[in-house]
Amino acid sequence: MGAARVPRGKWVEEGLRVLADGGPDAVRVEVLAKRLGVTKGGFYGYFADRDALLEAMLDAWERESTDEVIEQVEREGGDAKAKIHRAGMLTFSGDRLLPIDMAVRVWARRDEAVAARLRRVDNRRMDLLREMIGTFCEDPDEVEARGFIAFCVAIAHHSITADHEGRARVDVLVRAADLLLERDGR
User: Fold this and answer.
1) CATH superfamily of 8-180
2) What is the Cα–Cα distance from 13 to 65, expressed in whole angstroms?
3) How far apart are CA 114 and CA 40, in angstroms?
4) Which residues of 133-146 are buried (b: 16+ CB within 10 A; e: fewer)?
5) pTM to 2 decimals?
6) How does pLDDT run across 122-174, given as a tens digit for each residue?
7) DSSP E strands: which ranges in the chain?
8) Are 132 and 124 spatial neighbours (Cβ–Cβ below 8 Å)?
9) How far, CA to CA in Å, does 67 sit from each of 16, 31, 59, 62?
10) Cβ(148)–Cβ(137) under 8 Å?
11) Tens digit of pLDDT for each residue in 88-130?
């Protein structure tokens, strides 16, 4: 009886976990095979080499963090402000996409192809923000500024360690969102 064959998607998914934990240099065929409990021979049935796996990982990350997020946001409906909030929560909260996104951002600093991919993803995210914010804000310059600030807060707040003078971080983030989205949060 032969060894169980691990589906292609499992290699990609495990690669994304390793990327999130240790960056692209940690994504090694031997490491993934060990984590999946298989020999590395099965890897080559799906991928020509490690670079092909890395490309498949970036494809999966891009699809999940743009297409799938946008599809879910549209499917669940609501007004533009609710959609912006939901897209941010799906993308920049939790244990799934956020660590991968952060790892891709670090990787993009030293790899032009990854930087181009990240730019494409970020542009799609900004396009969504522009579209949604444009439903309640008419000034194109203000739409752009609000979208940019919202995007900066979503990405950078994970890296900022400042205290908030007796306020909880989550309360500050909620208030920031209220200000950006013109919600009466008082």
Assistant:
1) Tetracycline Repressor, domain 2 (1.10.357.10)
2) 14
3) 25
4) bbeebeeeeebbeb
5) 0.89
6) 999 999 999 999 999 999 999 999 999 999 998 888 888 999 999 999 899 88
7) none
8) no
9) 17, 29, 11, 8
10) no
11) 889 887 788 999 999 999 999 999 999 999 999 999 999 999 9
Name residue, tokens 């923000």. Answer: 129
Q: Which of 46, 47, 49, 30 is nearest to 38 (CA)?
A: 30
Domain ranges of the chain: 8-180
pLDDT in tens, 63-73: 999 999 999 99
How far CA 83 is from CA of 8, 72, 80, 121, in Å, comes to 33, 10, 5, 18
Say which residue the tokens 């976990």 belong to.
Answer: 17
Burial of 105 (0-12, 13-18, 19+ CB in 10 A): middle
Q: Would you say the C-alpha torsion 90, 81, 152, 120 has a positive or negative sign?
A: positive
